[in-house]
Amino acid sequence: MTFTIDAFINDCKSVLGSAQPMTEIQQLMSAALDDCAGLKAVLPPTRGEPSRILYREDDLTVLQVSLPPGLKSPVHNHTIWAVIGIYDGREDNRFFTDDGGLTQQSARSLGAGDVAALDATTIHAIENPLDTVTLGLHVYGGDLLAAPRDVWDHATRLREPFTQQRFAEISRAVNA
């Protein structure tokens, strides 16, 4: 069966009321990534923007993400669960805790066909270590753009309220 973004979004919406929506969306993502080349044909790299909103409502956000070569993100959280699928390239994740100080706990690399489920308490930073664009499909259990979130200052490693402007400022420092 050929992947369509509309069918994928409808499938995601249909499981939101289930007891385990993140787990069910993880299964939907795995099925979508069975054909990474087909997914890339439907969702080629974005031009100029690192992400494109495919669907956004109060209970669900679906993004296509194009990570430029070498890009590193600041440490941040989402405060809502997320299911991340990579369909081309590689995304390296570092996971942290913040108990008054930011401490890296683990790391995981995601390659084409890999899926990761992040609960609402996850704190992480991502990196595309390749010299090519990394492509991902991200599903969030809420409105990611409206959710109160945090970002950690690169120099001080202190938590701050997330704003697009502050995220961009810290991103420039991380990628300098």
Write a structural description.
- This protein is an alpha+beta fold.
- It has 4 helices and 11 strands, in the order H-H-H-E-E-E-E-E-E-E-E-E-E-E-H.
- Helix 1 (5-15) packs antiparallel against helix 2.
- It is globular, with a radius of gyration of 16 Å.
CATH architecture: Sandwich
The amount of helix comes to 10-25%
Portion in beta strands: 35-45%
Based on DSSP secondary structure assignment, what is the total number of beta strands? Answer: 11
Number of domains: 1
The H/E string reads HHHEEEEEEEEEEEH
Radius of gyration, in angstroms, nearest whole number: 16 Å
Concise synopsis of the structure shown:
This protein is α+β, with helices and mostly antiparallel strands and 176 residues long. 23% of the residues lie in helices and 37% in strands.
Features of the shown structure:
Jelly Rolls, 4-stranded antiparallel β-sheet, globular, 37% strand, single chain, 5-stranded antiparallel β-sheet, alpha+beta
Produce the secondary structure layout.
Elements lengths: L4 H11 L5 H12 L3 H7 L8 E7 L2 E8 L8 E2 L4 E7 L1 E9 L3 E10 L3 E4 L4 E5 L6 E7 L9 E3 L6 E3 L2 H11 L2
Antiparallel strand pairs: 1-2, 2-9, 3-8, 4-7, 4-9, 5-6, 5-8, 10-11
